[in-house]
Design a protein that fits this description.
By secondary structure, this protein is of the alpha+beta class. Helices cover 45% and strands 12% of the residues. It has four helices and three strands, in the order βααββαα.
Length: 77
């Protein structure tokens, strides 16, 4: 999600995900179903389907998936 912050086409998704263009076309639809991206209106998209992250997608982009530290570690001087 961090790399997909602006409106992008399936070609950009393919590059980010390391997939072929055809396989990458399905990914934005799955992310849309989950509420992380939405399709840009046809008038705004020039030739290809373009996707933009939603608020929920931006929250996911900012999430940290690292191991949390303990209270004792956090309290150490």
């Amino acid at each position: 999600m961090r790399a997909y912050f602006d409106d992008h086409s399936a070609a950009v998704a393919a590059e980010i995900l390391g997939l072929g263009r055809e396989a990458a076309r399905d990914q934005p639809r799955l992310l849309e179903a989950a509420g992380y991206v939405r399709l840009v209106e046809k008038e705004a998209a020039l030739a290809d389907e373009r996707w933009v992250t939603t608020v929920q997608g931006n929250v996911l982009a900012q999430a940290s998936f690292g191991k949390p530290i303990s209270r004792a570690t956090a309290s150490r001087p």
